[in-house]
Amino acid sequence: MDSETLARPLIDLALTINGEPVRTEIDPATLLVELLREERRLTGTHVGCDTSQCGACTVHVNGRPVKSCTVLAAQVAGEAITTIEGIGTPEALHPLQAAFSRHHALQCGYCTPGMIMAGLGIIARHGAALDAATVREELDGNLCRCTGYEGIVAAILEVARDGEGGGGG
Question: The pTM is what?
Fold first, then answer.
């Protein structure tokens, strides 16, 4: 068989990304992370492991954190996707982005988008009642090789305490 015989037909996909309606044709095997990075050029969503072990690819689907390297784009048809680019701007950081900076919660920055998106989900679930042990437990599966997590935990707790965790999608 030649490659044309093996080619899968494209499927039509409609969804919302960072508040913008998107309609596109994709291969049914396209991962959400591939759609975001390669087609939409939203490169803040990182690929670290391709096995959902590191969390660098974390985005929100209807306000809930998911690891986009293990989700087919077709599975989120009709859903609202929020990436790190959708929560703040360089001129107006999201409160959690600003807290990461204040608490030195990033060094190389590779894990930072996924950590922030996971942190927003943790804050949304627990609010001001959040404690350090819960943050650490729920960040399991989001890896950082640089910071030692102290600043990350402190930033998430600050935003939860101050009630500024909204707007994460």
Answer: 0.89
